[in-house]
Design a protein that fits this description.
This is HPF/RaiA family ribosome-associated protein. With 120 residues, this protein is of the alpha+beta class. 45% of the residues lie in helices and 24% in strands. It contains 2 helices and 4 strands. It has a 4-stranded mixed beta sheet with strand order 1-2-3-4, with helices on one face. Strand 3 and strand 4 form a beta hairpin. It is elongated and about 55 Å long.
Amino acid sequence: MKGLAISFRDIEHSDGIETSIREKATKLTSTFDDITGIRAVVAMPHNHSYKGRLAHVSLEVGLPGETVAITHDNHDNSDHEDMYVAVRDAFEKAQRKIRKIHEKRVDRNRRATTVVAQAT
């Protein structure tokens, strides 16, 4: 696994959550091998009492030339009282964003190769 940093804020460290993040990060980096690093911040901020405590997971995924930020705020999603669901949702969003960037890069390279081939 390439550079992975995990931070916990407003919540006790959890080996289970850390293991879940490591597994999902490993899967993400094996799918997209150009990822240079991942920084995950897991927080359980104090929300309004009528909503309960909702988990907040944010990710920064390093790619060559850019950093993709995933801040998955679901203040009205009661499913995010479960930290594992919040982690899953954040990594799913990261995968969608990185796939979109990857497809644009591949398409751009394909177009550049086609233009060069036509010019010769």
